[in-house]
Amino acid sequence: MVLHGYQDLDGPLRARFTVWLEQLMSWARKNYLHRIRSIPKSVGLEQIPEELLVREDEYDLEDRSGDGFAFEEERLAQAYSRLPLMKKRILALMFVDQLSPAEIAARLHCSIRTVYNQKSRAIAALRKWLSEK
Amino acid sequence: MPAGKYDSFRSVLEKAISGSQDALEEIFRLYEPMLRKYSTLDGQIDEDLRQYIMIYIAKYISKFVI
């Protein structure tokens, strides 16, 4: 490898560092690939067979209109408002606008993986906040 | 390489190891081809992987013994 500007200086050190750095990059790459492969793939709602989805008439409508539900909904709204802007936008685009992760990534100029990661972290944060008393 | 910024590769490395962000960026510049090689997935640069490798280097460069 040619290191512009330093060809004549500290040759052995540069060579030793280059070998060390290449090993480090290789580890980092393996580590990254291991991590992303261990993340379960998300499945869009539209990909789930209809028979596996809960039908609306299976809900207890009284429970949904009760005070408890309204209270939970308000808590959810409060928790949602605590999320950072990027996470809010991703959740809104995904669940309100029903965009696919690829469409969201294109719109927000980020990778699809970022969309998945941000969505997962946002939902985890909401769960954590909602479980707090 | 900006003229006069660093005397030698050794000085860049020493500064990067001691935590200089500027020297670390110089290391990234010098090793850009290697960084690109390890950031490539399916024939394309994966920006997340690239960032991950750069963070990894920033975290562990202090372990290198001159």
Which terms would index this structure?
heterodimer, A: 133 residues, mainly alpha, 6 helices, 0% strand, B: 66 residues, 4 helices
- The averaged pLDDT of chain B comes out at 90
Structural class of chain A: mainly alpha
CA radius of gyration of chain B is 13 Å
Strand content of chain B: 5-15%
Q: Give the beta-strand count of chain B.
A: 2
Low-confidence runs of at least 5 consecutive residues of chain B:
none
Kindly report the spatial arrangement of strands forming the biggest sheet of chain B. 1-2
Q: Rg of chain A, please?
A: 24 Å
User: Biggest sheet of chain B: strands, sense, closure?
Assistant: 2 strands, antiparallel
Q: Could you write a compact summary of the structure shown?
A:
With 133 residues, chain A is mainly α. Helix content of chain A is 66%, strand content 0%. Chain B is 61% helix and 6% strand.
Outline the fold blueprint:
The complex is a heterodimer of chains A (133) and B (66).
Chain A: H1 11-37, H2 61-65, H3 67-82, H4 85-96, H5 101-108, H6 112-131
Helix pairs in contact in A: 3-6, 4-6, 5-6
Chain B: H1 9-17, H2 21-30, H3 32-38, E1 40-41, E2 44-45, H4 47-60
Antiparallel strand pairs in B: 1-2
Helix pairs in contact in B: 1-2
Overview of the molecule:
- The complex is a heterodimer of chains A (133) and B (66).
- Chain A has helices at 11-37, 61-65, 67-82, 85-96, 101-108, 112-131.
- Chain A has 133 residues and is mainly alpha-helical.
- In chain A, helix 3 (67-82) packs across helix 6 (112-131), helix 4 (85-96) packs across helix 6 and helix 5 (101-108) packs across helix 6.
- Chain A is elongated, with a radius of gyration of 24 Å.
- Chain B is mainly alpha-helical and 66 residues long.
- In chain B, 61% of the residues lie in helices and 6% in strands.
- Chain B has 4 helices and 2 strands, in the order αααββα.
- In chain B, strand 1 and strand 2 (44-45) form a beta hairpin.
- In chain B, helix 1 (9-17) packs across helix 2.
- The longest helix of chain B has 14 residues, at 47-60.
- The two termini of chain B are 22 Å apart.
- Chains A and B meet through helix 1 of A and helix 1, helix 3 and helix 4 of B.
